[in-house]
Amino acid sequence: MATTPPSRSSRRLGLPLPLAKLAASAARLLSRATGREGGALPGRVLMALAPGALAKLSAKARKRGRRTVLVSATNGKTTLTAMLAEMLQSEGHQVVHNVTGANLRSGIITTMYQSRGRGDVAVLETDEATLPLVAPDIQPEVILLGNLFRDQLDRFGELEVLADRWRATLGALDPTRVTVVFDADDPLIAALVEDYVAHASAAGVTPRVVPYGLEDPAVAQQGLPHAADSRFCRRCGSALTYAHSWVGHLGAWHCDNCGLTRPDPEVAATKVVLDGLGASHVHLRTPNGEFDVRLKIPGLYNVYNAVGAIAAATVLGVPNARIAEALDEASPAFGRFERIPVPGGGTITLLLVKNPTGLNEVVRTLTASNIDVTASLFALNDLTADGRDTSWIWDADVEPLLERAGAIVVTGERAAEFGLRAIYGGLDPDGVIYEPDIEDAMYRVLERARDFTEHHHAYALVTYTAMLKMRAVIANQGWAQRYWANEPRTKARR
Description:
It contains 16 helices and 17 strands. By secondary structure, it is of the alpha/beta class. The protein folds into 3 domains: 16-51, no CATH class; 58-329, Mur-like, catalytic domain (UDP-N-acetylmuramoyl-L-alanine:D-glutamate ligase); 336-477, Alpha-Beta Complex (Protein-Tyrosine Phosphatase, Chain A), CATH 3.90.190.20. The strands form 3 sheets. Strands 2-3-1-4-5-6-9-10-11 form a 9-stranded mixed sheet, with helices on both faces. Strands 12-13-17-14-15-16 form a 6-stranded mixed sheet, with helices on both faces. A two-stranded antiparallel ribbon has the order 7-8. Helix 2 packs across helix 5 (105-114), helix 3 crosses helix 6 (131-138) and helix 6 (131-138) packs parallel to helix 8 (159-171). The protein is globular. The N and C termini lie far apart (65 Å).
């Protein structure tokens, strides 16, 4: 059996793990005593005092029989991970899951530490840049690679750089132990998995890989969108040819020059019926047979999330009937098409957007649903967690939403920039309603919903930190429960 050398972090000197754990527990208690939740603080303490903590915690969990799944993608990893956790729980597994979305190294270590050895499966959402830092220490049984879109270029660099790091990450895993589940419709990911298979095969190992994807031309786009990223072959550099594209550059692709082609999905959505903001109905093909699922979370990109979760669940032995039950009950992760009732009638729907492809899909879902989007808001922040570079809004096709809305409330640190984008997108300058404070902007769009729509529904397209701020306002008003340990506190409006 192939063995993997210890990771660099596990070879660094530090305190013995039991002592570091005591310090981490003390830090968490102190944090709570001062009115904070603790969040990822235990993980930060363990990282500082015992650099090899993650490798040691993971090794102990493996000895107890726990299997670990790492899930990473640019778009959809929070929703996909939540779906997979639900599927496993429906089958009776005790799941360890970083449900708060703490997907950096400190958050993952905190999740592993706080599980105290409980749980037979760990399902860990993992930031794209963090995956290479944690996967060699964890040595997961399953690693799911969803998609790579242009996102936070100030932090990640170009997609090819991130793809190279993911390729090196696969090379640091034991191919006799790990199953690689991947989106076959993403040419960048499919190419790096092909490299992984070739290198493992050259070493005499046949690795287990499970491609997934879509196969319904009826829900394909007309050509590649302007914001499509991976247009060229990773092997030879030639332009790729697409028979169909579904979301961004995800599609049925091949290279006419060198012959690199999309792998046949082992798990596939062969028929998709999108019912606006209601349920999507999907027919699946899996190694365990075909079946239908009903998905209450709207949008074609959430169908992708469901198919990825189904592929991983199938690898982990969850039967189709349990998968269907879990998806029928699945609800949106906070801030991701989360519809929140507002006292007095109506709703506000939070829609996280953070890159061109994600924004395009939100706009596509809203406009294809033929709903009244008169009460719409866009909150644009450029804090570290959002990505400092906000130029991506100019690559997204927001015109269909602007045309239907007629006016839009803009807010956040970079409200003026999106206001300018809206004007260049054809919106009358008088239709750009500036409200720099996010909380005030939320009440402004709710007023528009009451004054100008029949059903009082408002839609808030928000970047990451703006979503946290708005979600905190909503939680403090008692309209929805608080999800995040580090969700900022705000004063409730009277």
